[in-house]
Write a structure and sequence with these properties.
InterPro entries: PRTase-like, PRTase_dom
Order of helices and strands: EHEHEEHEHEHEEHH
Keywords: Coiled coil, Glycosyltransferase, Transferase
Helix content: 25-40%
Protein name: Phosphoribosyltransferase domain-containing protein
CATH topology: Rossmann fold
Pfam families: Pribosyltran
Radius of gyration: 19 Å
Oligomer: single chain
GO molecular function: hypoxanthine phosphoribosyltransferase activity
Distance between the termini: 30 Å
CATH architecture: 3-Layer(aba) Sandwich
CATH class: Alpha Beta
Length: about 220
């Protein structure tokens, strides 16, 4: 990863979610959202507002999972380094929350698709657990034969070699990244201690959409 930092503001995140919800995500017909904490929480909440079909429609439920790719290097150390194994910090209950996913169009939301390791884990484990929950339903339950479709939304996808793979059908039809960036260090507003300074940095070092830049350059 490059040492170059690029900054996203709250307004950036809000507008990216709005554009995605009113555009590419609309066809997914989402009726349940799963936010990957902590970067997926704020985008998920914004998306919920814009995915409502009418003002009086019920809110789309949001559930949360917590995953970590980082581990402590020592018992007294605060230093962290990338781990080799995804760890569950928070997960859905098999008997209630997981069963509620059966037959739904589920949108998994995170802030960034970096190595894709976390997304791969989330998709595979959720698919596996939903299938297990389905098997536990009584034979007469009408949800027994209903299909669950998982979709993915991220604010930023880093254009780099990925360590994890998503199903080909998902990357082709059930995946949307609002912006494609280079392999840069992305700074999000919810990580900032001084939000005014963060916004000033964002004016100097905004997120660069590499796909948009390429298209604009090729058309000139």
């Amino acid at each position: 990863m490059s040492d170059q930092k690029q900054y996203a503001t709250y307004n950036d995140v809000h507008n990216l979610c709005k554009e995605a919800a009113k555009g590419p995500l609309e066809k997914f017909q989402i009726n349940l959202i799963i936010a990957i904490g902590g970067g997926g929480y704020i985008p998920a909440r914004i998306l919920r507002s814009f995915l409502k079909k009418t003002p009086d429609a019920p809110n789309i439920p949001i559930q949360a999972i917590g995953l970590s790719l980082y581990e402590r290097l020592g018992t007294d150390s605060v230093e962290e380094a990338p781990g080799t194994e995804v760890k569950r910090l928070q997960w859905l209950d098999m008997n209630s929350s997981m069963a509620n996913l059966i037959g739904k169009n589920v949108l998994i939301v995170d802030e960034v698709d970096d190595t894709r390791t976390t997304l791969k884990y989330a998709v595979e484990e959720l698919e596996k657990d939903v299938e297990e929950a389905r098997k536990q339903l009584p034979a007469e339950d009408e949800k027994k034969n209903k299909e669950t479709k998982f979709h993915v939304f991220v604010l930023h996808n880093k254009d780099k070699a990925k360590k994890g793979d998503l199903p080909k059908d998902m990357t082709a039809n059930r995946y949307h990244a609002a912006v494609t960036t280079g392999d840069v260090w992305i700074c999000y507003p919810w990580e900032a201690e001084n939000i005014e300074q963060h916004d000033r940095e964002a004016k100097l070092h905004p997120i660069v959409d590499t796909k948009k830049t390429t298209v604009e350059e090729s058309s000139t």
